[in-house]
Each structure stands twice: as C-alpha cells, then as structure tokens.
# Entry
Amino acid sequence: MNDAALPAAPWPEMRLDEFMQRAVSHYYATRDPFTDFTTAPEISQVFGELLGGWIVVTWVQLGRPAPFRLVEAGPGRGTLMQDAWRLISRTAPACAAAARLHLIETSPYLRGAQKSRLPHATWHDRLAELPDGPVMLLANEFLDTLPLRQFVRQEAGWAERYVLDGKFTLRPAEPPVPPPPGGGDIFEICEAARAWVAELSDRLRAQGGAALLIDYGYGESATGDSLQAFRGSKYADPLADPGEADITAHVDFGVSAEIARAHGLHAWGPVTQGALLTRLGLPERISRLIAENPEQEAALTKAAHRLTHGEQMGTLFKALAVTAANFAPAGFE
Ligand code: SAH
# Structure
C-alpha cells in the first residue's frame, strides 16, 4: 500500500468499496491517524493490560501451547500490544517465552511506530503470511476500516452506491442482491471483513487457537448507512478529500459470529466492551493504580468511564471471541 494506490485527482467513478479501500490505504500509509481519532488503547494502558490478561488465561485454557503465534491485526501505534506484552511477561513468563509476536499491518508509516515499541515482532501484510502454529489473535478497531458496499432500494429494484466527485452515484445492482437483514431501504455488506473472518476461522480450525475481535458495531445485523469519517477529531464528509480522513463503518458482529460457526469454530458473544472490561477486572485494576498514583485519580477515573460507560465506548463497542476448542473464554462465561 502506498501512494500508487491513490489515483490522480479527479478520481474516476468507482464502487464504494474500491473508493474506501484506496482512500483508507492512503490515509494510513501517510500519517499518524491518532490526531484524527483516539482508540481504547490510547485512552488507557489498562485496556492493553486487561487484554494481556485475557491472552494468559486463554493460553492456559488452550493447554499452554508452546510455541504459539501471538498476533495483532491493525496494531496502530503498537500501544495495545506493548501494554499487553508488559503484563504477559511480568505475570506469566512461561506464556511470554512461548509467544512469537506477529503484527499484521499494511501501513509502512505505522510499522515504524510499532517497531519502536515492539522491536521483537515480525510484520506481515496478510493473515495468510503467518507461519504455522496455534494462534492467539487480538484486533481492536481493525475490521471497521475494511471496505464495504452499500445497496439502496429503488422502485426498479436494488441499486449500488458508487462515488464520483465527492458524491454518491447509483448504478443498478448486479444480481443476486442478498436480502437485507430485517428489511429497510439501505444496507451494507463488508465482503472484506467476511472474507477475513472466514480466513481467520479456517486457520484457527486447522491449527488451533483463539481470537478476540473488538470494534464498534451491530450485535445483530441491521440495515442503514453507517459510513462515517473523522478528521481533526470531528465528523467529516466521508467522500470529500479522499485519503485525508479516517473512513470507517459499523462491524456486523452477528454475521462475523455466523461465519466463524460455519467454518467450524465456537463463537462467543458479542458482549459489550463495558461488560468485557469489567469482567476482566477493570475496576480492581483502576483502584490499584489510583492507590499507587493518587495524583492521577481524576485521569484514571475519567479513562475508566470512557472505556466502559454506556454513553461513551461501553455499549457501542463490542467484543466477539472465537475459539477452535469448546471453552468459554474469560469475559464470555
Ligand atoms: N488497533 C489500533 C489501531 C486501529 S486503526 C488501536 O486500537 O489503536 C486501524 C489499523 O489497521 C491501523 O494500524 C491501520 O494501518 C491498519 N489497517 C487498515 N487496513 C488494513 C489492512 N487491510 N491490513 C492490515 N492492516 C490494516
């Protein structure tokens, strides 16, 4: 992924998923996106630490595979894995010794940021490049960046959205158009996310392991237009200035769970991020940090609230776990 992915302006008319694919790759390849938005691991170290704890517990449930591939997809600045890794090496040295760290990241810019925090990792462009062995994978706000298609109901039948000159255009949808979940006049399909979950599931089924996928999105498939863009911490027009804003869409966790099951895995949840973090011990961890750093009480309390409260990230963000063997992972009991 590089500037070559971005055609010279003006862009020709393209299907929405192609537009999104090009705009998103250019966006991530050329900057630190965290000036436009923030994510859970950037809000508090507790997020990565709790997921590190999840890795340790799940590793024990899996029968302590050694070695295993500890993988993160779309690691951003590398903060989540840095926090998780610190927790794992301090509390479970045998798990840390068995872990081989792999990061799936297409942005050369962000690979650089990750390398400064996780110098012992190996980088890959795709899941398929992972070496053999059981996998434990984390992904936070990765699936929401994958390109999607939108279909709009018209009198003459379904039309599909394309993009030209910063505006949507419509072309008759090529049949067969799958029926929209629960009716409605507009619906989305993220083929890239579906294919990715299917590929992950096949890998886990063949070689063992588990994955924890966290993102914002629907617990059950829903209709509607969820495309959104952020620029400079504000909502922006997703079609304007392609490659300059972060474009994302809701993740369909219902479909993801269905796909995992169809590929022979056990799927757990989705549960809300608030419920997951609370069950993994966020309140206790925050209290301990406050006891150790009383001067940071206000900041720690605010971070905990942001991560778990229903009006913040607590409910919109959800977690889905998938496992090759039949056991309920921590937080999904
Ligand atoms: N997980 C991080 C970053 C989320 S931003 C956090 O929570 O802070 C999305 C991340 O996915 C970025 O690192 C971006 O470069 C990466 N990414 C986007 N599309 C990708 C793709 N197709 N393959 C691999 N990584 C991708």
Summary: The CA atoms of residues 268 and 333 lie 9 Å apart.
